[in-house]
Write a structure and sequence with these properties.
With 326 residues, this protein is an alpha+beta fold. The chain has two domains: 1-59, Uridine Diphospho-n-acetylenolpyruvylglucosamine Reductase, domain 2, CATH 3.30.43.10; 62-116 and 156-325, Uridine Diphospho-n-acetylenolpyruvylglucosamine Reductase, domain 3, CATH 3.30.465. It has helices at residues 15-25, 38-43, 90-97, 102-107, 110-114, 127-132, 161-168, 265-271, 278-289, 302-325, and strands at residues 8-10, 29-32, 51-54, 64-67, 70-74, 171-176, 179-184, 204-211, 216-223, 234-243, 246-255, 262-263. The strands form three sheets. The chain has a five-stranded antiparallel beta sheet with strand order 4-5-8-6-7, covered by helices on one side. It has a four-stranded antiparallel beta sheet with strand order 9-10-11-12, with helices on both faces. Strand 2 (29-32), helix 2 (38-43) and strand 3 form a beta-alpha-beta unit. Helix 8 packs antiparallel against helix 9 and helix 9 (278-289) packs antiparallel against helix 10. The radius of gyration is 20 Å and the shape is globular. The termini are far apart.
């Protein structure tokens, strides 16, 4: 049985108090919300904080409220509670509903999913298993077993909600010792399996600002082995802005194939000045397929997963077209 290591558990009542606690704990302190990612990682000794600071008692991090030019969603809202956004932001609600199981969605939070640790078949194992292969670059070792000659870690981003946030142009409100900053979702991620967030360790993701649904639509499609609760081995978030029946802007963002939510600008460009005809959809799907490079660190055969990028991009865009015609 995997057991948690000993740690001190703190429950601040405000953001200011949480920041003070983290400053006191230093590098050995870690924030936690629902704990559905951190606690399993602690059991496997991926992270071993001696002080864990819960954010779930901070009222500032909860709720949904109107904001300038859109909606502000507290980062501590649970994934289950995101169903309240279905009418205005169906892609966000859909992505949240596709995360894990109902029990874990009741605990897991929006902020936790957006900051989810990257995953890899060689990393997400017990301490003893990892020790038997001499560990890996992401934790305790010096080599990436996915690409042994690579100087970087190739663990993949497995968040379902993050690709949607990048696609729709959401912004993250980060609060830290130096104050508050608002950062576009796309700029919050690095294409590196270890340093996958631009958020500083002592910063808190306080809220997500969603742009007003003014002339645009978005969808999210997910590929996984088990249709009920697996991590994505591919996610496709598609966003388009319509004007008089023609697409004036578009974004395609892939999840599960890189260490960050990977936008494919060429795919979005292929959709501009079209009405999502079959030819435009095929061109965008082909553009999304080309840079998709699944590696041997998640499920399914690599070549098949790459082929599914074209298939799932096509399905996502066809759904957007059918919704436009309804």
């Amino acid at each position: 049985m995997l057991r948690l290591p000993q740690f001190t558990y703190l429950q601040p009542a405000s953001l200011a108090e949480a920041l003070r606690m983290k400053a006191d704990a230093g590098p050995d302190g870690s924030y936690v919300a629902g704990g559905t990612d951190l606690y399993p990682n602690m059991k496997r000794r991926h992270q071993t904080p001696t002080t864990v600071i819960s954010l779930m008692g901070i009222e500032e991090l909860r709720g949904v409220r109107n904001a300038e030019r859109g909606t502000a969603v507290g980062a501590a809202i649970t994934l289950t509670e995101l169903h309240t956004l279905r009418e205005r932001y169906p892609a966000v609600a859909t992505a949240a509903e596709l995360v894990s199981t109902p029990l874990l969605r009741n605990m897991g939070t929006l902020g936790g999913n957006l900051c989810l640790d990257t995953r890899c078949n060689y990393y997400n194992q017990s301490y003893e298993w990892r020790k038997a292969i001499d560990f890996c670059m992401k934790k305790d070792g010096a080599i990436c077993w996915v690409a042994p000659s690579s100087p970087r870690c190739w663990a993949v981003s497995s968040s379902d909600v993050a690709p949607v946030m990048v696609a729709i142009g959401a912004e993250y409100q980060l609060v830290g010792p130096k104050g508050e900053r608002l950062v576009p979702a796309a700029r919050c991620y690095h294409n590196d399996g270890i340093n996958y967030l631009t958020k500083q360790p002592d910063e808190i993701l306080a809220a997500v600002r969603l742009p007003a649904p003014d002339g645009w639509d978005a969808v999210y499609h997910k590929l996984r082995r088990r249709g009920s609760f697996d991590f994505p081995v591919l996610g496709v978030a598609a966003w388009v802005r319509w004007e008089r029946g023609t697409i004036v802007d578009a974004r395609i963002v892939l999840g599960g194939v890189a260490s960050w939510p990977q936008e494919v600008p060429e795919a979005g460009a292929a959709l501009k000045a079209t009405a999502l005809e079959d030819e435009a959809i095929a061109a965008a799907a082909e553009a999304a397929y080309r840079p998709s490079k699944p590696l041997d660190n998640t499920d399914f055969e690599l070549s098949w997963r790459k082929q599914m990028t074209r298939v799932y991009a096509t399905r996502a865009l066809q759904e957007l077209r059918s919704r436009r015609r309804e």
